[in-house]
Specification:
236 residues, alpha/beta, Lambda Exonuclease, Chain A, 10 helices, binds iron/sulfur cluster
């Protein structure tokens, strides 16, 4: 079973206390706001639109709920000669990632990570670098890694009908070179996050600007409690 995922890696990149709480104190998470819920739903819709534009692939995530099985099935589908996979799943160095779309060209693969924003952020590039590290480490020959974001305002995209998805829905950024250059840095970050997860108690990190950047941390309520309130909650 993988120790880290794309999502937990990014939480740890934001704050080591965030990844620790997410791993061991999930029940202390703040409730999801309506805005966050809408964001997740919008993300799923945009993902489905991307699959329509890269039509004819197999969605690996439909095969099983077990991540170990998904990793094995991805390898099988690749060996069987499939050329488009959605949510292809890879594990390397105890990190598990699922790639939105992978497309075979010759003997190599092009990876497309789909974002439902109109701009690619530095966090998206760090996310891409992690996926590249894991896929390359697990033996996938990668030709290019592309980040994709919307060409149209998100509000308008959410109202689009599936039959009317425009072919220019996405703009692409080739981040292959960046990902390659980040390989050692990514490995160091993974090592550091594993060290944090092995700590015997919650790391002592104060709240600050990092609690809202790049995302609003799900443990702000917990971290803003007094030590007395925390102790009562944890040991009640
Ligand atoms: S609220 Fe801030 S300090 Fe607490 S875990 Fe989240 S990011 Fe870290």
């Amino acid at each position: 079973m993988a120790l880290l995922t794309k999502s937990t890696f990014l939480k740890g990149h934001q704050c080591h206390k965030y990844i620790y709480l997410d791993k061991y104190y999930k029940k202390e998470k703040d409730p999801l706001s309506d805005e966050q819920r809408k964001k997740y739903e919008g993300g799923h819709l945009v993902g489905a639109m991307a699959q329509k534009l890269f039509a004819g692939g197999i969605d690996v995530s439909n095969i099983s709920r077990s991540r170990d099985v998904l990793v094995q099935e991805t390898q099988k589908l690749i060996e069987q000669g499939n050329i488009i996979l959605y949510e292809a799943t890879f594990e390397y160095n105890n990190v598990l990632v699922m790639a939105d779309i992978i497309l075979k060209e010759g003997d190599e693969w092009k990876i497309f990570e789909i974002k439902s924003s109109q701009k690619i952020s530095d966090t998206n590039r760090i996310d891409a670098a992690l996926q590249y590290y894991v896929m390359k480490g697990s033996g996938l020959p990668i030709k290019e890694f592309h980040l994709s974001c919307l060409n149209y305002p998100r509000v308008g995209v959410i109202e689009m009908k599936m039959e009317e998805v425009p072919t220019d829905l996405f703009q692409f950024e080739n981040v292959t070179l960046f990902c390659e250059e980040q390989l050692d840095i990514t490995e160091d970050k993974i090592k550091s996050l594993k060290t944090t997860l092995a700590l015997p108690s919650i790391p002592n990190i104060a709240t600050g600007e990092h609690c809202d950047y790049p995302y609003t941390c799900e443990f702000k309520g917990f971290c803003n409690k007094s030590q007395e309130e925390i102790n009562e909650g944890l040991f009640s």
